[in-house]
Specification:
This protein has three domains: 3-105 and 314-338, no CATH class; 106-301, Up-down Bundle (Growth Hormone, Chain: A), CATH 1.20.1250.20; 374-620, Growth Hormone, Chain: A. The chain has 26 helices and no strands. It has helices at residues 3-15, 30-38, 46-59, 66-77, 90-101, 108-134, 138-141, 149-201, 207-235, 238-266, 278-286, 288-297, 305-310, 314-324, 328-349, 354-360, 362-380, 383-396, 401-417, 422-425, 431-452, 460-478, 485-493, 499-551, 560-568, 571-590. α8 packs across α11.
């Protein structure tokens, strides 16, 4: 962005009074903050940049790399114009050129780190799903048989214990843990807690003891879920960062499938002398094995360079980046850019309460609303009801226990396989379109599953087939849509200066409602019957479609300035426009009718008829 454009932005922002104050500190306004964080090096002359890079190297114990940091500072300002920089040698340009033409030609160390992060995601999935098979056995053995309504609440409480911990405490611990222990240390501690509590679960003999063990498991799930994607993002080069961060969702789905495999593997394990329920104890304990592998491997990976810089350990940060990049100029470029970005963040965030600004700044509030909707609906679409209780559901459909576990494995496999298309469709078809397309399908398929329970007992095979088909079709609709979109969308929706706080909030919403779903479903299944229970979540999917239609702007492939425009259109204006657009799109895309084009809603799409909505427009 040119200096003239920056001045124009400043003037526009000041005209709408978007400058915040406290008693002593004058804040940088939010739009300018976003622009500054998009690239703090914009507008700095090349001579000054080279001098700044050299000074940075000498000041932080990297004087022997002074020339590399001169080049690195120049390239960091605009990585696309390196061909025209006379300071760079042909060897430097060849390295930077190959970075663009061979995006996946990365050091082995980076891929080793990606494998570790993927394994961490798989542990997450296993932690969530191994309880599925165990639900067939432990309630009776621990004194909470499911023919009593109070016990159905207790089963839900036991199943939901980790997510209660995550929503209330675990996710909010990730920030102090990351501050004091680093990314690797936080992953190690959370994996250690997962390992210990998985073994602990297998040693319990009362429902309340199992509840305590699973509640403590939440301290392993919460910080890990918040840290691993950030660790992957901070260590990955920009060209492949999005794809690598998306691996979290895909490999979590893989872990859910492996959790069901463990339930099948240990189902027939007999009880030895003096041990009751060895099979379900081994199921719960199995998730500890990959957690142990993570513990032994995580410190073999480099630490996050961003965290090391925050600790003032610039030499270690350079060593870390040198292991994660092909050349010294790439390492110098990325280290210097992280440094100036952290300085800009410190300047912008001084004296502000970022959590309060999630709700008080209109642009942030709309992003918060949209993120809350997608995180809430990821739970209330009903997917985790199936992930945690599919064995119970299939048993009620008159599957045998083994058939129920095999059917649950099918759910896990489809959940993983159909997450793969999202890697391609999320950036082509778009986040909003994926959700608007899949939510009606999920609603229909859940209704289909619920109605299958009306099939009479004498047609048992037909009932089994339709129940399984309904759940499988639901999963195939969920996996490329509401599966990967919430985390991707939430990370984009918030402005840069408040993104970490926004993601902590969004993650806590996700885990809290995960707990609500887990604790209520056993009682819901009994009180509503399977038909009513599936109808309940089908209804929520219909509500989710309406919420997304009215309150969720598209964020695909938008610049920071365009995102500001999108989230600055007042909520009631956006909702009214989408209500008008719905019948228009149905006529155009469903019935293939010729219809008059609608005027665009956002400035970057063209004129908005009689009115334009500036990025700082008010409204609720």
């Amino acid at each position: 962005m040119s200096i003239e454009n920056e001045k124009a932005d400043d003037k526009r922002v000041e005209s709408v009074s978007d400058v915040a104050y406290d008693k002593e500190v004058k804040h940088i306004d939010n739009t300018t903050a976003n622009v500054k964080l998009a690239n703090p090096l914009t507008g700095i002359p090349h001579d000054q940049l080279m001098e700044d890079g050299a000074t940075f190297a000498k000041t932080h114990g990297l004087g022997h790399l002074e020339e590399e940091f001169r080049k690195g500072a120049l390239v960091a300002q605009d990585p696309t114009v390196f061909e025209s920089l006379p300071l760079l040698t042909e060897e430097d340009k060849a390295v930077l050129r190959r970075e663009l033409t061979h995006r996946w030609a990365q050091p082995v160390q980076l891929y080793y780190l990606v494998i570790l992060c993927s394994l961490s995601a798989a542990v997450q999935g296993m932690d969530e799903s191994v309880i599925n098979g165990a639900n067939l056995f432990f309630p009776d053995q621990l004194g909470i048989p499911q023919n009593v309504s109070k016990n159905q609440w207790l089963l839900g409480l036991v199943n939901g214990a980790p997510y209660l911990c995550c929503g209330l405490v675990g996710c909010w611990l990730s920030t102090p843990m990351n501050k004091y222990f680093g990314r690797r240390g936080t992953i190690f501690i959370s994996a250690f807690i997962s390992f210990i509590t998985c073994i602990w679960q297998g040693l319990t003999n009362t429902w309340w003891h199992l509840f305590i063990a699973r509640f403590i498991l939440g301290f392993g799930i919460g910080p890990k879920s918040a840290t691993v994607p950030v660790y992957a993002a901070e260590c990955s080069p920009p060209a492949i960062r999005g794809a690598l961060v998306m691996m979290w969702q895909m490999w979590t789905a893989f872990g859910i499938m492996i959790g069901t495999v463990m339930s099948l593997a240990f189902y027939h394990v007999p009880d030895p002398h003096n041990i009751t329920g060895l099979n379900w104890r081994l199921m719960l304990g199995s998730a500890g094995v990959p957690a142990l592998i993570i513990m032994t491997q995580v410190f073999l990976c480099p630490e996050s360079p961003r965290w090391l810089i925050k600790q003032g350990r610039y030499d270690k940060a350079y060593e870390s980046l040198r292991r994660l990049r092909k050349s010294s100029i790439q390492a110098a470029r990325d280290l210097y850019y992280i440094h100036v970005l952290l300085e800009a963040e410190a300047e912008i965030q001084t004296g502000r309460n970022l959590f309060i600004e999630l709700f008080t700044v209109p642009r942030n509030r709309r992003a918060t609303l949209a993120s809350t909707i997608v995180m809430f609906m990821q739970q209330f679409c009903g997917v985790n009801v199936i992930a945690y209780y599919s064995s119970n559901i299939f048993s009620q459909a008159k599957f045998t226990n083994i058939q129920a576990l095999l059917a649950s494995w099918g759910f896990g496999m489809l959940n993983w396989v159909f997450a793969l298309p999202a890697v391609y469709t999320i950036d082509t078809f778009g986040r909003r379109n994926l959700l608007l397309t899949t939510f009606p399908l999920m609603s229909v398929f859940l209704l289909m599953t619920g109605f299958a329970f009306f099939i009479p007992e004498e047609h048992r095979d037909a009932r089994i087939a339709v129940v399984a088909l309904g759940i499988y079709l639901f999963t195939m609709a969920y996996s490329p849509g509401e599966g990967p979109v919430p985390f991707t969308y939430s990370a984009e929706a918030f402005p840069l200066y408040i993104r970490d706080t926004g993601m902590s909030y969004a993650t806590s919403v996700l885990w809290f409602f995960n707990f609500i779903v887990a604790i209520t479903f056993p009682r819901l299944l009994s009180a509503f019957t399977p038909q009513g229970a599936f109808g309940w979540y089908a209804g929520w999917n219909a509500i989710g479609f309406v919420l997304i239609l009215l309150f969720l702007p598209e964020t695909k492939a938008l610049s920071l300035e365009e995102l500001d425009q999108v989230f600055s259109v007042p909520t009631h204006i956006h909702a009214a426009y989408q209500l008008k657009a719905l019948p228009h799109h149905i006529k155009k895309y469903v019935f293939r009718m010729k219809v008059k084009p609608l005027p665009p809603l956002y400035e970057h799409e063209g004129a908005i008829g009689e009115k334009h909505y500036a990025p700082a427009a008010g409204g609720h």
